[in-house]
Design brief:
binds magnesium ion, binds uridine-5'-diphosphate, Spore Coat Polysaccharide Biosynthesis Protein SpsA, Chain A, alpha/beta, 8 strands, eight-stranded mixed sheet, about 50% helix
Protein backbone atom coordinates (compact mmCIF):
# COMPACT_ATOMS: atom_id res chain seq x y z
CA UNK A 1 0.00 0.00 0.00
CA UNK A 2 1.46 3.38 -1.03
CA UNK A 3 1.34 6.31 1.38
CA UNK A 4 0.29 9.75 0.17
CA UNK A 5 1.08 12.81 2.30
CA UNK A 6 -1.46 15.59 1.75
CA UNK A 7 -0.25 19.08 2.63
CA UNK A 8 -3.19 21.38 3.25
CA UNK A 9 -2.53 25.12 3.79
CA UNK A 10 -5.23 26.72 5.93
CA UNK A 11 -5.57 30.42 6.54
CA UNK A 12 -8.94 31.52 7.93
CA UNK A 13 -10.70 28.44 6.56
CA UNK A 14 -12.92 27.62 9.56
CA UNK A 15 -15.91 26.88 7.34
CA UNK A 16 -13.98 24.75 4.88
CA UNK A 17 -11.64 22.42 6.77
CA UNK A 18 -14.35 20.02 7.95
CA UNK A 19 -15.93 19.90 4.48
CA UNK A 20 -12.50 19.16 3.09
CA UNK A 21 -11.88 16.40 5.62
CA UNK A 22 -15.27 14.85 4.85
CA UNK A 23 -14.41 14.77 1.17
CA UNK A 24 -11.03 13.15 1.87
CA UNK A 25 -12.79 10.56 4.04
CA UNK A 26 -15.24 9.83 1.23
CA UNK A 27 -12.41 9.45 -1.27
CA UNK A 28 -9.91 7.41 0.74
CA UNK A 29 -11.70 5.64 3.60
CA UNK A 30 -12.26 2.42 1.69
CA UNK A 31 -9.37 2.77 -0.69
CA UNK A 32 -7.18 -0.33 -0.60
CA UNK A 33 -4.39 1.07 -2.78
CA UNK A 34 -3.44 4.23 -0.94
CA UNK A 35 -2.96 5.21 2.65
CA UNK A 36 -3.27 8.88 3.57
CA UNK A 37 -1.28 11.12 5.89
CA UNK A 38 -2.92 14.51 6.37
CA UNK A 39 -0.73 17.49 7.21
CA UNK A 40 -2.81 20.57 7.94
CA UNK A 41 -0.84 23.78 8.37
CA UNK A 42 -2.65 26.57 10.14
CA UNK A 43 -0.96 29.71 8.82
CA UNK A 44 -1.74 31.97 11.79
CA UNK A 45 -5.52 32.00 11.19
CA UNK A 46 -7.48 34.62 13.10
CA UNK A 47 -10.72 32.61 13.12
CA UNK A 48 -11.54 29.16 14.53
CA UNK A 49 -9.57 27.19 11.94
CA UNK A 50 -7.16 25.77 14.54
CA UNK A 51 -10.04 24.67 16.78
CA UNK A 52 -11.70 22.91 13.83
CA UNK A 53 -8.42 21.24 12.89
CA UNK A 54 -7.96 19.98 16.45
CA UNK A 55 -11.40 18.43 16.24
CA UNK A 56 -10.44 16.71 12.99
CA UNK A 57 -7.41 15.09 14.67
CA UNK A 58 -9.83 13.23 16.97
CA UNK A 59 -10.82 11.10 13.97
CA UNK A 60 -8.33 8.24 13.77
CA UNK A 61 -9.10 7.08 10.21
CA UNK A 62 -5.94 8.68 8.83
CA UNK A 63 -2.73 9.74 10.44
CA UNK A 64 -3.38 13.49 10.86
CA UNK A 65 -0.97 16.22 11.89
CA UNK A 66 -1.76 19.86 12.55
CA UNK A 67 1.05 22.38 12.58
CA UNK A 68 0.11 25.79 13.75
CA UNK A 69 2.29 28.79 12.89
CA UNK A 70 2.93 31.60 15.37
CA UNK A 71 1.57 34.10 12.79
CA UNK A 72 0.72 34.32 9.10
CA UNK A 73 3.86 33.44 7.12
CA UNK A 74 2.21 32.95 3.70
CA UNK A 75 1.46 29.91 1.55
CA UNK A 76 5.06 29.56 0.36
CA UNK A 77 6.26 29.05 3.95
CA UNK A 78 3.36 26.66 4.54
CA UNK A 79 4.41 24.47 1.62
CA UNK A 80 8.00 24.33 2.87
CA UNK A 81 6.87 23.36 6.38
CA UNK A 82 4.53 20.72 4.97
CA UNK A 83 7.28 19.17 2.87
CA UNK A 84 9.48 18.89 5.96
CA UNK A 85 6.75 16.97 7.75
CA UNK A 86 5.73 14.72 4.88
CA UNK A 87 6.76 11.07 5.10
CA UNK A 88 4.73 9.45 2.31
CA UNK A 89 5.84 7.83 -0.94
CA UNK A 90 4.07 10.66 -2.74
CA UNK A 91 3.34 14.18 -1.53
CA UNK A 92 0.45 16.30 -2.75
CA UNK A 93 -0.26 20.00 -2.23
CA UNK A 94 -3.97 20.77 -2.03
CA UNK A 95 -5.93 23.83 -0.87
CA UNK A 96 -8.43 23.65 1.96
CA UNK A 97 -11.13 25.66 0.17
CA UNK A 98 -12.41 22.74 -1.98
CA UNK A 99 -11.42 24.44 -5.22
CA UNK A 100 -9.21 21.44 -5.86
CA UNK A 101 -11.29 18.27 -5.39
CA UNK A 102 -9.50 15.64 -3.23
CA UNK A 103 -10.89 12.90 -5.51
CA UNK A 104 -8.54 14.07 -8.30
CA UNK A 105 -5.52 13.07 -6.21
CA UNK A 106 -6.24 9.39 -6.92
CA UNK A 107 -5.70 9.99 -10.63
CA UNK A 108 -2.42 11.75 -9.85
CA UNK A 109 -1.19 8.83 -7.75
CA UNK A 110 -2.18 6.33 -10.45
CA UNK A 111 -0.17 8.25 -13.03
CA UNK A 112 2.88 8.20 -10.76
CA UNK A 113 2.37 4.45 -10.20
CA UNK A 114 2.11 3.68 -13.90
CA UNK A 115 4.55 6.11 -15.47
CA UNK A 116 7.89 5.72 -13.73
CA UNK A 117 9.39 8.47 -15.89
CA UNK A 118 6.95 11.00 -14.52
CA UNK A 119 8.14 12.53 -11.22
CA UNK A 120 5.46 15.14 -10.71
CA UNK A 121 1.83 15.45 -11.78
CA UNK A 122 0.42 18.96 -11.93
CA UNK A 123 -3.09 20.17 -12.68
CA UNK A 124 -3.38 23.34 -14.72
CA UNK A 125 -6.42 25.51 -15.33
CA UNK A 126 -7.26 25.64 -19.01
CA UNK A 127 -10.13 28.00 -18.37
CA UNK A 128 -9.91 30.50 -15.57
CA UNK A 129 -12.78 31.12 -13.22
CA UNK A 130 -11.58 34.48 -11.89
CA UNK A 131 -12.40 37.91 -13.38
CA UNK A 132 -11.13 38.89 -16.83
CA UNK A 133 -8.72 41.60 -15.61
CA UNK A 134 -7.04 39.32 -13.03
CA UNK A 135 -6.80 36.58 -15.61
CA UNK A 136 -5.16 39.00 -18.10
CA UNK A 137 -2.66 40.19 -15.48
CA UNK A 138 -1.79 36.56 -14.66
CA UNK A 139 -1.32 35.70 -18.33
CA UNK A 140 0.96 38.76 -18.80
CA UNK A 141 2.96 37.64 -15.77
CA UNK A 142 3.56 34.19 -17.30
CA UNK A 143 4.71 35.78 -20.55
CA UNK A 144 7.16 38.14 -18.79
CA UNK A 145 8.40 35.36 -16.55
CA UNK A 146 9.02 32.95 -19.42
CA UNK A 147 10.76 35.56 -21.53
CA UNK A 148 13.08 37.00 -18.92
CA UNK A 149 13.77 34.34 -16.33
CA UNK A 150 15.74 31.13 -16.27
CA UNK A 151 12.64 29.09 -15.48
CA UNK A 152 9.77 28.09 -17.76
CA UNK A 153 6.33 28.32 -16.17
CA UNK A 154 3.26 26.67 -17.68
CA UNK A 155 0.31 29.04 -18.12
CA UNK A 156 -2.31 28.29 -15.48
CA UNK A 157 -0.23 25.63 -13.67
CA UNK A 158 -1.43 25.51 -10.08
CA UNK A 159 0.17 24.39 -6.84
CA UNK A 160 -2.11 21.36 -7.05
CA UNK A 161 0.69 18.85 -7.60
CA UNK A 162 1.71 15.40 -6.53
CA UNK A 163 5.33 14.31 -6.67
CA UNK A 164 7.81 11.68 -5.67
CA UNK A 165 10.35 12.01 -2.86
CA UNK A 166 13.19 12.94 -5.22
CA UNK A 167 11.28 16.13 -6.11
CA UNK A 168 10.44 16.77 -2.45
CA UNK A 169 14.08 16.48 -1.39
CA UNK A 170 15.20 18.79 -4.21
CA UNK A 171 12.68 21.44 -3.17
CA UNK A 172 13.67 21.19 0.47
CA UNK A 173 17.30 21.71 -0.53
CA UNK A 174 16.34 25.20 -1.75
CA UNK A 175 15.91 26.78 1.66
CA UNK A 176 15.83 30.41 0.54
CA UNK A 177 13.76 32.86 2.59
CA UNK A 178 12.06 34.66 -0.33
CA UNK A 179 10.28 31.67 -1.79
CA UNK A 180 8.46 31.45 -5.09
CA UNK A 181 7.27 27.85 -5.22
CA UNK A 182 6.04 27.84 -8.85
CA UNK A 183 9.53 28.88 -9.97
CA UNK A 184 11.22 26.46 -7.56
CA UNK A 185 9.26 23.52 -9.01
CA UNK A 186 10.38 24.48 -12.48
CA UNK A 187 13.97 25.21 -11.43
CA UNK A 188 14.56 21.81 -9.80
CA UNK A 189 13.61 20.13 -13.09
CA UNK A 190 12.34 16.51 -13.17
CA UNK A 191 9.62 15.29 -15.52
CA UNK A 192 6.26 16.90 -14.94
CA UNK A 193 3.01 15.63 -16.47
CA UNK A 194 0.32 18.28 -16.84
CA UNK A 195 -3.39 17.55 -16.63
CA UNK A 196 -6.12 20.09 -17.36
CA UNK A 197 -8.82 20.80 -14.77
CA UNK A 198 -11.44 23.40 -13.98
CA UNK A 199 -11.25 24.45 -10.32
CA UNK A 200 -14.48 24.57 -8.34
CA UNK A 201 -15.77 27.77 -6.83
CA UNK A 202 -14.48 28.35 -3.30
CA UNK A 203 -16.76 26.47 -0.85
CA UNK A 204 -16.84 29.35 1.67
CA UNK A 205 -14.93 32.57 2.32
CA UNK A 206 -12.96 34.67 -0.14
CA UNK A 207 -9.59 34.39 -1.83
CA UNK A 208 -6.62 35.60 0.20
CA UNK A 209 -5.11 37.20 -2.90
CA UNK A 210 -5.86 40.87 -3.44
CA UNK A 211 -4.66 42.45 -6.75
CA UNK A 212 -1.89 44.22 -4.77
CA UNK A 213 -0.76 40.95 -3.13
CA UNK A 214 -0.75 39.29 -6.57
CA UNK A 215 1.30 42.15 -8.02
CA UNK A 216 3.88 41.89 -5.22
CA UNK A 217 3.96 38.10 -5.63
CA UNK A 218 4.58 38.53 -9.37
CA UNK A 219 7.42 41.03 -8.89
CA UNK A 220 8.95 38.75 -6.24
CA UNK A 221 8.69 35.81 -8.64
CA UNK A 222 10.46 37.60 -11.48
CA UNK A 223 13.19 38.80 -9.14
CA UNK A 224 13.73 35.39 -7.58
CA UNK A 225 14.57 33.78 -10.88
CA UNK A 226 15.88 36.55 -13.08
CA UNK A 227 18.42 39.36 -13.05
CA UNK A 228 16.97 40.77 -16.29
CA UNK A 229 15.47 43.84 -14.52
CA UNK A 230 19.02 44.82 -13.49
CA UNK A 231 20.16 44.44 -17.07
CA UNK A 232 17.19 46.56 -18.12
CA UNK A 233 18.68 49.42 -16.08
CA UNK A 234 21.97 49.06 -17.97
CA UNK A 235 20.19 48.96 -21.34
CA UNK A 236 18.06 52.04 -20.57
CA UNK A 237 21.16 53.90 -19.34
CA UNK A 238 23.10 52.97 -22.45
CA UNK A 239 20.21 53.89 -24.77
CA UNK A 240 19.72 57.27 -23.11
CA UNK A 241 23.43 58.16 -23.24
CA UNK A 242 23.49 57.28 -26.91
CA UNK A 243 20.37 59.35 -27.61
CA UNK A 244 21.74 62.38 -25.68
CA UNK A 245 25.04 62.26 -27.56
CA UNK A 246 23.17 62.14 -30.85
CA UNK A 247 20.94 65.05 -29.79
CA UNK A 248 23.98 67.07 -28.65
CA UNK A 249 25.59 66.67 -32.07
CA UNK A 250 22.36 67.88 -33.77
CA UNK A 251 22.21 70.96 -31.51
CA UNK A 252 25.86 71.84 -32.22
CA UNK A 253 25.32 71.48 -35.98
CA UNK A 254 22.10 73.57 -35.85
CA UNK A 255 23.86 76.31 -33.85
CA UNK A 256 27.16 76.40 -35.79
CA UNK A 257 25.91 75.96 -39.34
CA UNK A 258 22.33 77.29 -39.32
CA UNK A 259 22.34 79.71 -36.34
CA UNK A 260 19.15 78.13 -34.85
CA UNK A 261 18.60 78.84 -31.12
CA UNK A 262 16.83 76.21 -29.00
CA UNK A 263 14.14 77.13 -26.42
CA UNK A 264 16.26 76.37 -23.31
CA UNK A 265 13.82 76.18 -20.37
CA UNK A 266 11.29 73.54 -21.61
CA UNK A 267 14.06 71.38 -23.07
CA UNK A 268 16.05 71.38 -19.84
CA UNK A 269 13.03 70.73 -17.60
CA UNK A 270 11.85 67.83 -19.79
CA UNK A 271 15.32 66.25 -19.86
CA UNK A 272 15.87 66.67 -16.10
CA UNK A 273 12.50 65.07 -15.30
CA UNK A 274 12.98 62.25 -17.79
CA UNK A 275 16.48 61.37 -16.66
CA UNK A 276 15.56 61.83 -12.97
CA UNK A 277 12.60 59.47 -13.41
CA UNK A 278 14.65 56.83 -15.17
CA UNK A 279 17.41 57.06 -12.55
CA UNK A 280 14.89 56.58 -9.75
CA UNK A 281 13.33 53.65 -11.61
CA UNK A 282 16.73 51.97 -12.00
CA UNK A 283 17.66 52.72 -8.39
CA UNK A 284 14.35 51.16 -7.39
CA UNK A 285 15.19 47.95 -9.26
CA UNK A 286 18.62 47.78 -7.63
CA UNK A 287 17.01 48.55 -4.26
CA UNK A 288 14.55 45.68 -4.65
CA UNK A 289 17.40 43.23 -5.20
CA UNK A 290 19.37 44.65 -2.28
CA UNK A 291 16.24 44.28 -0.15
CA UNK A 292 16.00 40.61 -1.10
CA UNK A 293 19.72 40.11 -0.36
CA UNK A 294 19.19 41.78 3.05
CA UNK A 295 16.34 39.41 3.86
CA UNK A 296 18.34 36.38 2.77
CA UNK A 297 21.48 37.56 4.65
CA UNK A 298 19.57 37.78 7.93
CA UNK A 299 18.97 34.05 7.58
CA UNK A 300 15.76 34.10 9.56
CA UNK A 301 13.66 30.94 9.76
CA UNK A 302 11.03 30.59 7.00
CA UNK A 303 8.32 29.95 9.61
CA UNK A 304 7.89 29.55 13.37
CA UNK A 305 5.78 26.75 14.84
CA UNK A 306 3.55 27.54 17.79
CA UNK A 307 2.00 24.14 18.26
CA UNK A 308 2.10 20.65 16.76
CA UNK A 309 -0.71 18.18 17.23
CA UNK A 310 -0.98 14.66 15.89
CA UNK A 311 -3.37 11.77 16.34
CA UNK A 312 -0.35 9.51 16.11
CA UNK A 313 1.77 10.37 19.16
CA UNK A 314 4.86 8.69 17.70
CA UNK A 315 5.01 11.12 14.81
CA UNK A 316 5.14 14.48 16.65
N1 LIG B 1 -3.31 30.27 2.35
C1 LIG B 1 -2.37 30.17 3.36
N2 LIG B 1 -1.72 31.30 3.76
C2 LIG B 1 -1.97 32.53 3.18
C3 LIG B 1 -2.90 32.59 2.11
C4 LIG B 1 -3.55 31.45 1.73
O1 LIG B 1 -2.15 29.09 3.92
O2 LIG B 1 -1.34 33.51 3.59
C5 LIG B 1 -4.03 29.04 1.93
C6 LIG B 1 -5.56 29.16 1.91
O3 LIG B 1 -6.14 28.86 3.16
C7 LIG B 1 -5.96 28.15 0.84
C8 LIG B 1 -4.75 28.17 -0.11
O4 LIG B 1 -3.66 28.75 0.61
O5 LIG B 1 -6.10 26.84 1.36
C9 LIG B 1 -5.03 28.99 -1.36
O6 LIG B 1 -5.45 30.29 -1.01
P1 LIG B 1 -6.64 31.02 -1.78
O7 LIG B 1 -7.78 30.08 -1.93
O8 LIG B 1 -6.90 32.31 -1.06
O9 LIG B 1 -5.96 31.31 -3.18
P2 LIG B 1 -6.60 31.17 -4.64
O10 LIG B 1 -7.22 29.80 -4.69
O11 LIG B 1 -7.61 32.25 -4.73
O12 LIG B 1 -5.44 31.33 -5.56
MG1 LIG C 1 -8.60 29.01 -3.46
Amino acid sequence: MKKISMIVPCYNEEENVKLFFKDVLKTYKDNKKYNIELIFIDDGSKDNTLKMLKEITKDKTFKTKVISFSRNFGKEAVIYAGLKESSGDYTVLIDADMQQPPSLTIKMAEILDKDLDCDCVCYYQNSRIEGKSISKIKSLFYKVMNKFSEVELKQGASDFRMFRNNVKEAILSLDEYCRFTKGIFSWVGFNTCYLPYVPNERANGTTKWSPLKLFKYGIGGVMSFSTTPLRLATIIGFGLSFFSLFYLIIIIIQKLFFGIDLPGYPTIITCVLLIGGIQLFCLGIIGEYIGKMYLEAKNRPIYIVKEKISNDKKSI
